[in-house]
Amino acid sequence: MTATPGKQTFGFFRQNLVSEYTYPESVADGVNVDFDIYRIRTQISEEGSRIEAGTIVPKVDRRTRQQRLEILDEDLDYSAALLDRAVTATDQIRTVLETFRDRLFTEIFPGRSTVPKTLIFAKDDNHAEEIVTQVRKVFGKGNDFAAKITYNVRNAKEQLQALRTSPSLRIAVTVDMIATGTDVKPLECVFFMRDVRSAQYFEQMKGRGARTITSADFQAVTPDAENKTRFVIVDAIGVTEHPFVEPPLNRQKSVSLKKLLDKAAALTLTEDEAATLASRLAKLELALTDEERQELDEVAGQPVRDIVRALVDAVDPATGSADAIERAIEPIAANPELRNRILELRAAHDRVIDEVSSDELVEAGEWSIRIAPGRSWSRGGPILMSIATKSPRFRLLMRPGSIESTLPISRGSLPASLGRRTTGRPTSSGTPTPRSTRPRCGTVPRTPSLISCH
């Protein structure tokens, strides 16, 4: 048994393929997660460039990495194929990484704030070294954030373990060492800065990001994410444009889940839409709690994972057909309660990112808190306070337990105005004119919720 059989394997067994388990089937079964493709193109990576004669250029010894300066005695034209092999264009690497950084939390992983665990594939060890250097510069981070993991690194095994378990190491750059036979389950981003012309090798490299992981283990290394429900292939070289690369299940990303379910109810799903619905349901399955999953299975009258598997089989080029798609969506079409519950659970696990609305400043500046006349701090009931700002005076009712999270109280002492009782009549601006003010309490205990002033 092999995960990625090559021509030699097929030849040895005389093309006798006993059984096949496809990547979409593994997604349907919850073994792997589906993926998206994010393409980055730059002019140099597409067309190469020219360095004019007379230019002073650094040259690097491939073996020792020592640099020397030379003056070109003739124009140097290089194609994209020679990039990072005969010529290293530092600005091309920097441009790709800056684009990745700038789009990471808006387009690639919207709503996130922690860089996802990322594996970058480089062309050779020198290329990997240059990428690591640029990653640290672009992200403004140190050695614990990005590391090279190749056979030439002495502590490669320790770095690989850190990539699996450490919250600090976010980006690793490799050539071949992690390309095959190595599980790094928290990986969410597989970044190609080298081309791959073998379907077998590409599937092995892609598989580094495909593994599912429990939510507890995932949050231990990526605290701002709840579940791993997909991974992203970032393609900066054109590797996903080869004909041997199969598309993800999620083929119609712009179509909403509600529209897909409505079309399923009407039995009008196309092949691409059926594949997309399978991807969305598989993704939802991974995000559900055990109780929610059991409830949804009961509403469906069967495991939802079986419905997903039927959809995947229906769009398989070898076995699928229009009739198979119709049979696969029948359990969804005949069950409006299931469709509604799917949408409810999806909404419960979603968070909307508002990138459309524009905000404007209402007020900014110093503010003070005064205890309202006749009131005092206490450990018991609610505390009636007034906040003086440039806007009209208002009263804020605070209950015990909310002090620490709401008031700007430092450990050790109260703000000067907070420890005084203010009396007197309000002026036209709403702020009282004090007749007498005197401190009513001294220092604050280390736990602000135990403040008591009388």
TrEMBL record:
CDD domains for the chain: SF2_C_EcoAI-like
Region (Disordered): 407-454
Cellular component annotations (GO), alphabetically ordered: cytosol
Compositionally biased residues, Low complexity: 419-440
Name this polypeptide is given: Helicase conserved C-terminal domain protein
Lineage: Bacteria, Bacillati, Actinomycetota, Actinomycetes, Mycobacteriales
